[in-house]
């Protein structure tokens, strides 16, 4: 069945690191409205564009979503 994008994103959580991917993961973890069961690019991007002031632009999300798709492809 595969994991959700949120589950993939949580692999980047870290209380010590300060890189953009980690900052996004840490902020998404604190966002109780984040669509945790979503796998769809459009559902996730719509949510982030409208509700995620912690994300400075969608480029980072696009990069992580591509990584997510590649990791799901490898796990099939």
UniProtKB/TrEMBL annotation:
Stretches assigned to the YozE SAM-like domain: 4-69
A Pfam family matched in the record: YozE_SAM_like
Superkingdom, taxonomy of origin: Bacteria
Stretches that traverse the bilayer: none
Family: Belongs to the UPF0346 family.
The protein, known as: UPF0346 protein MAQA_05053
């Amino acid at each position: 069945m595969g994991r959700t994008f949120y589950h993939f994103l949580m692999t980047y959580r870290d209380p010590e690191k300060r890189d953009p991917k980690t900052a996004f993961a840490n902020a998404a973890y604190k966002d109780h409205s984040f669509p945790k069961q979503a796998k769809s690019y459009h559902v996730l991007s719509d949510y982030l564009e409208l509700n995620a002031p912690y994300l400075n632009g969608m480029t980072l999300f696009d990069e992580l979503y591509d990584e997510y798709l590649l990791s799901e492809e490898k796990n099939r």
